[in-house]
Amino acid sequence: xxCFRIVRKVCWGAATLLVAPVMVxxxxxxxxxxxxxxxPTTVEYSNEASSLLQEMQTKAIQVRNLADQLGxxxxxxxxxxxxxxxxALMRAKSQVNAMDGILFRLRAMGQDVLPxxxxxxxxxxxxxxxxxxxxxxxxxxxxxxxxxxHLLDKSYALDTGFMYQxxxxxxxxxxxxxxxxxxxxxxxxxxxxxxxxAAA
Length: 200
Known about the structure:
Radius of gyration: 25 Å
CATH topology of the largest domain: Four Helix Bundle (Hemerythrin (Met), subunit A)
Low-confidence stretches: 1-38
Number of helices: 5
CATH architecture of the largest domain: Up-down Bundle
Distance between the termini: 51 Å
Largest sheet: none
Strand content: under 5%
Number of domains: 2
CATH class of the largest domain: Mainly Alpha
Mean pLDDT: 77
Number of strands: 0
Order of helices and strands: HHHHH
Helix content: 55-70%
């Protein structure tokens, strides 16, 4: 009797499913049975999501600090070289690219994350789009104007200011969602001791 083993290969970022028939016969002619690889559990996904959100928060703080540095350059622009701005912008772009990658992974988890994590992802997403745009606009302005960007191009100051705001919003909102999750866990632990029923 012929039997087949189903081999599945899952690639991150794409719903690719490969099915390969393989004949498996035991010594007695009976079919061998192979246990499928277990998918990550909700707990494993939620733990990974928490780590990724914390990493995104750290990077958002770094981008915010770089935007603040660019704001200082703007205030003292007449004495600063445009190369100092370029270096800060390139570092900000690198961090934002990494944040986009983190967000892509978080979205790929779908409904396997906890509700508060999904809300955090939904809240961060539009701010990430705007942050990415403002970094790109600032780079384009700097490339176009170089040494006069601080003196003549007021849109550059707006771009770097919005960079600061969006990065700060991302960092702050992730922190708030994490505080909410911590408080909820504490209530669930202490509530039964006080005779309180956990909220659904």
